[in-house]
């Protein structure tokens, strides 16, 4: 048999109508389930989760319109087609208000029903595709957008690319804060075969454990006081796609045990539910802590760590990425220029480049981004100078390896004027071209400095 086109629930108290419709629908390749009252419709819907319901209005224990509004409220994607012998304006209006897709009079003309169903399902699929395309565009993260040419980054990206296209079910991303774990997780999703299905993220540090549990697993109506109706969790919503579990190190131990079971069994249950639902989403977990150490210290389940770390991608800290820091700085400078039209920053002074390459960057790329954003606001010149870097970046940076920094006379001597000029220029650059402050650094007067710079032919200083 060909793949079913979808599951349809026929709700009618007339057995013969259910039989006739059921037979026709199955011959068109739909699966069918039946209900003969409001009460059974509720139950069958809950058990079978059909894509479409055909609803009679006059039912022995109530109105099909009630079934319509109730189910559409909790499952807005469900398509409802009303079928009734009693077509009056009032019913039609309430049905359309309640979210019915169409209204068909009895006796049902089968061709009309067939076309109606086909259109309804096509519209739904189209909507889903449009939404997916829109979401993708909004998020559109790909490996190409990850900046970095260092060996350390190349290695991490190569591994991530390979696991992205593989069929592994879970991946662990390890890296300090701001190293790009979010970015990698999305890139892995968009490079995988799962790209057409959702990418959903949850931060384990941001919510209390019971909320994370119900977000992930979903729940059945009545599972707890506020569970007024069934809710699908991320494991279901992300079917075919990827779930990003950020800061998994913060997940409560009891929930870690449940997650491990899901990974091992490939199935889960909604909170308060009895049905095993197969897991068909890839789990990408991220941590900025060393989970192995955390497990040894008893803060993380060792068995879950082993399960997750079968495929672990280590994202290197920015300070280990060599010149990538300069590439990233330039990227954020270009971006700042776009945002702040009018001002045009070109790059970093040599001094700032040196500082950037030696700085610790404990906040990694995120910190770098903030530093450039700040400089782009404060800087009036064309270059990012050290004058507008946060003060703590300037301490602890080794001096330039150039001759002038240590004031050791080169073996063959040096022209004193050259040294003077070099230091004047550095002072001038460090202060962003502020003559007064630059002169202070050299303990000479503003005029003296200007004179020295001019004499050395340093054009920039003659402007003011
Ligand atoms: N290699 C990179 N290239 C471009 N942008 C990056 C890179 N790494 C990180 N970013 C950016 O830096 C910021 C922090 O990255 P994020 O993925 O949120 O880090 P984490 O999740 O590890 O804390 C984000 O704005 C991200 O887009
Ligand atoms: Mg993050």
Can you tell me about this structure?
It is a single chain. The protein has a 5-stranded parallel beta sheet, sandwiched between helices. A 5-stranded parallel beta sheet has the order 9-12-15-8-16. Helix 13 crosses helix 15 (364-378). The chain has 4 domains: 7-132, 3-Layer(aba) Sandwich (Rossmann fold); 142-316, P-loop containing nucleotide triphosphate hydrolases (Rossmann fold); 317-398, Orthogonal Bundle (Helicase, Ruva Protein, domain 3); 406-464, Arc Repressor Mutant, subunit A (Orthogonal Bundle). With 464 residues, it is of the alpha/beta class. Helix content is 47%, strand content 14%. Mean pLDDT is 88; it is low at 400-406. The chain is elongated, with a radius of gyration of 33 Å. The structure holds adenosine-5'-diphosphate (ADP) and magnesium ion. The site of magnesium ion (MG) has 3 residues, from helix 7. Magnesium ion is lined by residues 181-182, 246.
Give a quick precis of the structure.
The protein contains 19 helices and 18 strands. It is α/β, with parallel strands linked by helices. About 2% of the residues have low confidence.
Topology:
Elements: E1 7-11, H1 15-27, E2 31-35, H2 38-48, E3 52-56, E4 58-59, E5 62-63, H3 64-74, E6 79-84, H4 89-97, E7 102-105, H5 110-139, H6 151-165, E8 170-174, H7 181-191, E9 199-203, H8 209-217, E10 218-219, E11 231-232, H9 234-237, E12 242-246, H10 253-265, E13 267-268, E14 277-278, E15 282-287, H11 291-296, H12 302-308, E16 312-314, H13 324-339, E17 347-348, H14 350-358, H15 364-378, E18 383-384, H16 403-406, H17 416-430, H18 435-442, H19 446-455
Parallel strand pairs: 1-2, 1-3, 3-6, 6-7, 8-15, 8-16, 9-12, 12-15, 17-18
Antiparallel strand pairs: 4-5, 10-11, 13-14
Helix pairs in contact: 2-3, 6-7, 13-15, 17-18, 18-19
The structure holds adenosine-5'-diphosphate and magnesium ion.
């Amino acid at each position: 048999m060909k793949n079913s086109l979808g599951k349809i629930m026929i709700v009618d108290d007339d057995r013969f109508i259910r039989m006739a419709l059921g037979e026709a629908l199955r011959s068109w390749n739909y699966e069918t389930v039946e209900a003969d009252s409001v009460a059974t419709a509720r139950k069958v819907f809950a058990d079978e989760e059909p894509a479409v319901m055909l609803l009679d209005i006059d039912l022995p224990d109530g109105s099909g319109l009630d079934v319509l509004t109730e189910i559409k409220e909790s499952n807005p994607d469900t398509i409802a087609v009303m079928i009734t012998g009693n077509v009056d304006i009032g019913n039609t209006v309430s049905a359309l208000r309640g979210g019915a897709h169409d209204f068909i009079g009895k006796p049902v003309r089968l061709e009309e029903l067939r076309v109606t169903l086909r259109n309804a399902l096509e519209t739904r699929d189209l909507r889903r595709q449009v939404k997916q395309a829109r979401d993708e565009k909004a998020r559109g993260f790909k490996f190409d957008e990850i900046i970095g040419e260092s060996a350390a980054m190349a290695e991490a990206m190569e591994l991530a690319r390979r696991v992205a296209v593989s069929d592994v079910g879970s991946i662990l991303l390890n890296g300090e804060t701001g190293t790009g774990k979010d970015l990698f997780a999305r890139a892995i999703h968009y490079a995988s075969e799962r790209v057409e299905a959702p990418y959903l993220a949850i931060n384990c540090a941001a919510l209390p454990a019971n909320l994370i549990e119900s977000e992930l697993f979903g729940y059945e109506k009545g599972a707890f006081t506020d569970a007024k109706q069934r809710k699908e969790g991320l494991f279901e919503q992300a079917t075919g796609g990827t779930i990003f579990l950020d800061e998994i190190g913060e997940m409560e131990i009891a929930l870690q045990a449940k997650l491990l079971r899901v990974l091992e069994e490939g199935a889960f249950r909604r909170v308060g539910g009895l049905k095993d639902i197969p897991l068909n989403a890839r789990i990408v977990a991220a941590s900025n802590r060393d989970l192995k150490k955390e497990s040894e210290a008893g803060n993380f389940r060792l068995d879950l760590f082993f399960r997750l770390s079968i495929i672990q991608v280590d994202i290197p800290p920015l300070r280990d990425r060599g010149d990538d820091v300069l590439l990233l700085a330039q990227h954020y400078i270009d971006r700042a220029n776009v945002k702040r039209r009018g001002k045009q920053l070109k790059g970093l002074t040599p001094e700032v480049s040196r500082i950037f390459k030696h700085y610790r960057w404990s906040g990694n790329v995120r910190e770098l981004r903030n530093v450039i954003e700040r400089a782009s606001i404060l800087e009036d010149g064309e270059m990012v100078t050290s004058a507008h870097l946060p003060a703590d970046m300037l301490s602890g940076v080794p001096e330039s390896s150039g001759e002038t920094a240590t004031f050791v006379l080169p073996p063959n001597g040096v022209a004193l004027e050259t040294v003077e000029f070099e230091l004047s220029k550095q002072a001038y650059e460090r202060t962003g071209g502020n003559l007064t402050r630059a002169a202070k650094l050299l303990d000479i007067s503003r005029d003296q400095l200007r004179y020295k710079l001019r004499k050395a032919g340093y054009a920039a200083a003659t402007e003011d």
